[in-house]
Amino acid sequence: MKLLVNPSPEKWQKHLARPAMQTKKIKKIIQPIFEKVARTGDKALRKFAQEYDHVHLDSLLASQEEIQAAAAQLSPELIKAIGLAKSNIEKFHAAQATPDLVMDVMPGVTCSRKSVPIQRVGLYIPGGTAPLFSTVLMLGVPAQLAGCREVVLCTPTNRKGEIHPAILYTAQLVGITKVVKIGGAQAIAALTFGTESVPKVDKIFGPGNQYVTAAKQEATKYGVAIDMPAGPSEVLVYADETAIPAFVAADLLSQAEHGVDSQVVLVSPSEKFAQKVLAEINSQRETLPRKDIAAKALANSCAVILEDQATAIDLINDYAPEHLILAVKKEEEVVLQIHSAGSVFLGNYSPEAAGDYASGTNHTLPTSGYARNYSGVSLDSFVKKITYQKISPKGLKALGPAVEILAANEQLDAHKQAVSIRLEHLKRMKK
Q1: pLDDT in tens, 289-325
Q2: Based on the number of CB atoms within 10 Å of its own CB, is 389 exposed (0-12), middle (13-18) or buried (19 or more)?
Q3: Rounded CA gap, 140 and 144, in Å?
Q4: Catalytic positions, written as ranges
């Protein structure tokens, strides 16, 4: 992890550059996958499963027997923990529902808006180096609350063609019955086009590696929406000497272990404190089973010393982290000045891992600086907002002349005529 002392704003972008995606190389791999899946459906999916995951799949779908048997393979402690997480996520996301809006904007003109569920959604759940059954909760719970008619889950298997039982159990818990044994870009292609076994969906959700991220962006070319361009995980911790170095180090390592292309950043006004954190990182990392992955992620990462708080806040907003931890003396003051972050954790006792699993907020968040213009997944992500209007004859008489003038001045005569013909009809009826 590099240590930078008071770098100038002009160099922030260079010093904090995320690990670069090899876009052209990845596209060359992605596009043929999409073409083959679109052309040959399940046949292509089986071929790619064999080629990329080294697994032969007789069926692309998890059987109901497999799903039902999953619970018996989990410890009671894990089942209880999943239940607690589900409860908190459910409470927080249910509270996000907005009532239908109905308003008389003028006499005889009523406008309204209501939320309507997206009908068919696809959930991508990584299952490679870390089977993210927590993501099933983060996506499945709001999909269920929103009332999505069809929810399809795609996740890779092991070489025996088995899905991690915690993924299957959690899927069943949130009402998902269609689980597809396919991962990678080919899963995104299947959800985009539909195959014999996999339904075509309207929107795709879920994190993944660079290939999955690129595939989701490719899917948008075919009329399928995505939650966001979510890439490798990241965290920025802003901490001063009121923070506990061991806590900060643990938070940084919790993101570094996600993958070799993850990035973690420490911002602090104190070089002395930063050195304590770096020492803790070196010590704690040695105890981690995924220490080699963490080490590679740390090579992409840095600690930045910025003595001026205003400058530090500018850097945070410029970086726009997926996860932001504020462990500083005046955290409540600082947080009011943060406008670009996926999810924020306040204080020494708010670990990022709590949000990843069970506090109730969603862990599917914008990465790579997209927090400047994207929100994390929420209940709103699974609905559409449809507007309605009802205009009475009285309302049209009051509103219509203004519409005629506006249309005429835009030289859209048919628009004007659509109003004029109705107003003439009302005049004739009066006679």
Answers
A1: 999 999 999 999 999 999 999 999 999 999 999 999 9
A2: exposed
A3: 6
A4: 322-323
Closest CA to 179 of 80, 59, 43: 59
Closest CA to 154 of 141, 132, 87: 132
Give the angle 224-365-231 at the CA atoms, nearest 5°: 70
Question: What is the rounded distance in angstroms from the CA atom of residue 30 to the CA atom of residue 33?
Answer: 5
* Residue 22 one-letter amino acid: Q
**Helices marked H in 209-290:** 210-219, 245-256, 271-285
Q: How far is CA 389 from CA 270, 402, 414, in A?
A: 58, 17, 20
Q: Is the pTM of this model over 0.85?
A: yes
Segment 34-52 shows an average pLDDT of 97
Is residue 111 within 8 Å of 186, Cβ to Cβ? no
Query: 57, 65 in Cβ contact below 8 A?
Result: no
DSSP letter (8 states) at residue 385: E
Instruction: List the domains of the chain with CATH numbers.
Output: 2-19+232-360 (3.40.50.1980), 23-107+116-227 (3.40.50.1980), 392-430 (1.20.5.1300)
